[in-house]
Amino acid sequence: LFDTHYQNEDELVKRPPIITVMGHVDHGKTSLLDAIRHTNVISGEAGGITQHIGAYTIMIKDEKITFIDTPGHEAFTAMRSRGASVTDIAVLVVAADDGVMPQTVEAINHAKDAGVPIIVAVNKIDKPGANPDKVKQELTEYGLVSEDWGGDTICVNISAKKREGIEELLEMILLVAEVEDLKAHPTKKAIGTVIEARLDKQKGTVATLLVKSGVLHDGDIVVCNDVFGKVRAMMDDKGNKVKVAGPSTAIEILGFNEVPGAGEKFFVAENERDGRKYAERRKAIMKENALKKSGPVSLDDLFNQISEGELKELKLIVKADVRGSLEALSQSLEKLNDNDEGVRVSVIHGGVGAIAESDVALAAASNALIIAFNVRPDANAKAMAMKEEVEIRSYNVIYHVMEEIEKALKGLLDPEFKEVVVGNAEVRETFKVPNIGLVAGSYVTDGTINRNDKIRVIRDGVVIFESEIASLKRFKDDAKEVQAGYECGIGVENFNDIKVGDTFETFKMEEIERE
Ligand code: GDP
């Protein structure tokens, strides 16, 4: 259905590009989106100030450009994990006084994995400490070589604050869009993506849709996976009521029977009966899939896909405690590409520090496995990994990572022992106890702390020590085990540097049984 739009090439027309602005926090993404909106107001287009509806369109040189109004790669990747690639071009904002930062690298990797071209906006050039050349130099490390240095990445110097360089940036966007040759069908029933959706007490379901191809009309029956409805009202990004919306325009609509998911695709059904039938069938299928556990990313699953020849590329996200380990690991993993199995190994993203939600989102979107080297997920990332069924594999020896991945490539699946995390606790107080050393007054948050299991100390998501449990007490008594929800005193063998706020992870080795 979604492909039929593009079948008759001679019927297609050019459509405006859809842009997402990405970059490190505080580098000026929001300011840039504001500046662009403002540019449009100055140019005197009817309607005036834009409303926040999730995306807006501007005119420059008689051409249109649509911007997704939620900056950052988190939203970009969350949408992609639902199957929709909305963005045609990514604008990467890098502050000229700060340079390439961790989220800059994340944004580059997210855009690259999605196959989306990147235009760099070197921002804050008005600042005294601005050094655009240093930014360009740093970007070369990530494969983005500026055009004036012989590469093919367009870099534009801007000041979002002083509104300088904005027009030039917009012109560059049009230039890249031209090359991308973006097309849509001008008349068919609309297809597109949900950008945002919420429940409003008065209005009911409010959804922002981005039409990708075709035309959406007031009164159409829209279907979005398991929800549907008749469009009751349509509002454009200037707050005007409209009756039709063509390719690459965002509109806010009322009428869905339930709140659709951001990033889901929508289409227009022939009539209400068809729309309802489709949505109900999807609902039934989804219920069935939920029981079957759909779409997990685990090493076992990837193993199976490789051995059945279904998977030609093993994608990995590597997070490590220090840069040295990250580099050593990434290099060793890339070397595995010289294998006889014909399976590529790609490290699609690497970083230092705890595993964050955006890492999990990227893994879910791109069917990648997360390799955690001496680091752990933060609470949000952990919850998301459970929900999205993304496996995070923890290691503390590079050799073990290599050994397992190498085996995966060969379709061998035989680590006989696997590490199992048994419990987690957080340190709330510390005591110096004569003859014993430091004891951590701890609260067990998950599972069970067993006296005989091994223990790791984690600080800010990074594993800082691993050894045995030296003592486990409930009040004054020795305990064999302490369950989640209870407090206990924990001593760690050979480690007296425990601090309030540290967390413990206890684990044991378990024999793996396979079918
Ligand atoms: P975001 O987190 O990437 O969305 O960044 P913001 O747009 O919120 O900007 C972060 C800070 O940088 C704000 O205080 C802005 O006023 C400031 N800022 C943004 N662009 C510029 C610029 O071009 N020049 C200067 N001097 N400051 C800027």
From TrEMBL:
Span of domain Tr-type G: 14-183
Keyword Zinc: no
Molecular function as annotated in GO: GTP binding; GTPase activity; translation initiation factor activity
Residue positions binding GTP: 23-30, 69-73, 123-126
One GO cellular component term noted in the UniProt record for this chain: cytosol
Compartment list: Cytoplasm
Region (G-domain): 17-165
Family recorded in the similarity comment: Belongs to the TRAFAC class translation factor GTPase superfamily. Classic translation factor GTPase family. IF-2 subfamily.
Listed name of the protein: Translation initiation factor IF-2
Organism, scientific name: Anaerofustis stercorihominis DSM 17244
